[in-house]
Amino acid sequence: MSTGSAPQTAAPPREQWTGQVGFILAAIGSAVGLGNIWRFPGVAYENGGGAFLIPYLVALITAGIPILFLDYAIGHRFRGSAPTAFRRLGGRISGRWLEGLGWFQVAVAFVIGLYYTVVIAWALSYFVFSFDLRWGDDPAAFLTGDYLQVSDPGFSFEFVPGVLIPLVIVWLVTIAVLAAGVAKGVQRANVIFLPLLVVAFAVLVVRALFLDGAAEGLNALFTPDWEALGDPNVWIAAYSQIFFSLSIAFGIMITYASYRKRKANLTAPGLVVAFANSSFEILAGIGVFATLGFFAFQQGIEVSELEGLTGVGLSFITFPAIVSQMPGGPIFGALFFGSLTMAGFTSLLSVLQVVSAAFQEKFGLTTRQAAIRVGGVSAILSVLIFSTTTGLLALDTADQWANNVGIVSSAILTAILIVWVLRKGDELRFHLNSVSTFRVGKVWVFLVGILAPIVLAYMLISRIVTLIVEGYADLPAWYLGIVGWGTIAFIIVAAVVFTALRWKRDPNDFTAWPEYAPVTKETRS
């Protein structure tokens, strides 16, 4: 068989993006999610303001982009979802246990998909609420009382209709898109929603810039605190933001890259995706803090005195309060929550595609079968756990463990196993350079194999120590043990179980292309 062409296998033809633009839009749609809008502005503000952009860019260049390229190289060279790609990368000897790392990533994505959907359902509800300002004069009480009906920590089967109905709608739409396939479903949804998201959010930002107090809000965000650069926690915050924002290290970009054609540029589109994601984060920071400046102006206080500048508090308490006070508030609210819904939806598709693709390949399912079965099970669990009166607490806890323990562990294991144990760094660098216009040097292997694992290990250890010693959000230890550490236990057990199951088709019936012939002392002579 000629090594100049892709090998033929018994598996059906692999789905593909229609072209480079489709891939780029889908990858940006995955990266641009809820965290860009509700996490980055607050993290930047709390970690040095304008000075935070320095460690942020350093983190992007030294960890974000290198690990993004690593995911691209694995997925594109070994043509599969995370379990398939890792199985092939490890070969017949090491592939079995390395496949377990792939299923670990799939299990992380599965868990995230369960609760991520709920936040989109909240945003969809608030999009509707914006038109009559239904949250009234006390958005905090409305969110936790009238809307979510939050109860004490525990496990309830008391469903909240206001969450249940939009959640079911989101799941039906998501399953339909996944069932349509990569090109006709996921790509088409991103082609529609990503431009709409950018336009809607740009309109929101322009409106925010003309509000009274907007300049003070922007000054609060961008005024640099140079002393903050001497704080290691600020640098960790920058690496953390980049890491979680780019959708890396839990199977998404491995899966997405596997749908690219054999001869497809990887690194240049990767740079476009990375910088587009960061650009949207900065745009979100401008829009959010211009609006917060108006809110502070209305109350006659400084921006620093405001509360609820990140996460659920920012989106569903602070912003509704702002919308109630500003001229044209209903339209502004609809733009904000519409943007939040679209950003979340495009990211959700990528998360669930990781799970769907893995099941398609392991068990020989069609695209539609996998979407319906995986989506159906996910939807049922999502509804049972997160549309109840205890859903908010379960969501917050599961998110904390899945992100800060699950994804970071996955990234560290991936880097160490591939670069140090299997010594595949040079082969993956060869693959990137064989198909791409922007070539990566040996420094890329250093960044992926040494710098990133060190920084991520520090993040992981410090977070685990904090969770063990201090707990989380004043929740009882028994609850954190079941929902928090139970999430990690589920991910590990799922990885072991699915690795042990038999493949429908032999994943090793495959030849990587282009052929890699490492340079050794013998080949030099």
From TrEMBL:
<keyword id="KW-0472">Membrane</keyword>
<feature type="transmembrane region" description="Helical">
    <location>
        <begin position="331"/>
        <end position="359"/>
    </location>
</feature>
<dbReference type="InterPro" id="IPR000175">
    <property type="entry name" value="Na/ntran_symport"/>
</dbReference>
<feature type="transmembrane region" description="Helical">
    <location>
        <begin position="271"/>
        <end position="297"/>
    </location>
</feature>
<keyword id="KW-0813">Transport</keyword>
<dbReference type="Pfam" id="PF00209">
    <property type="entry name" value="SNF"/>
</dbReference>
<feature type="transmembrane region" description="Helical">
    <location>
        <begin position="101"/>
        <end position="129"/>
    </location>
</feature>
<feature type="transmembrane region" description="Helical">
    <location>
        <begin position="21"/>
        <end position="40"/>
    </location>
</feature>
<feature type="transmembrane region" description="Helical">
    <location>
        <begin position="52"/>
        <end position="74"/>
    </location>
</feature>
<feature type="transmembrane region" description="Helical">
    <location>
        <begin position="192"/>
        <end position="214"/>
    </location>
</feature>
<feature type="transmembrane region" description="Helical">
    <location>
        <begin position="477"/>
        <end position="501"/>
    </location>
</feature>
<dbReference type="InterPro" id="IPR037272">
    <property type="entry name" value="SNS_sf"/>
</dbReference>
<feature type="transmembrane region" description="Helical">
    <location>
        <begin position="371"/>
        <end position="395"/>
    </location>
</feature>
<feature type="transmembrane region" description="Helical">
    <location>
        <begin position="401"/>
        <end position="422"/>
    </location>
</feature>
<keyword id="KW-1133">Transmembrane helix</keyword>
<feature type="transmembrane region" description="Helical">
    <location>
        <begin position="159"/>
        <end position="180"/>
    </location>
</feature>
<feature type="transmembrane region" description="Helical">
    <location>
        <begin position="443"/>
        <end position="465"/>
    </location>
</feature>
<keyword id="KW-0812">Transmembrane</keyword>
<feature type="transmembrane region" description="Helical">
    <location>
        <begin position="234"/>
        <end position="259"/>
    </location>
</feature>
<protein>
    <submittedName>
        <fullName>NSS family neurotransmitter:Na+ symporter</fullName>
    </submittedName>
</protein>
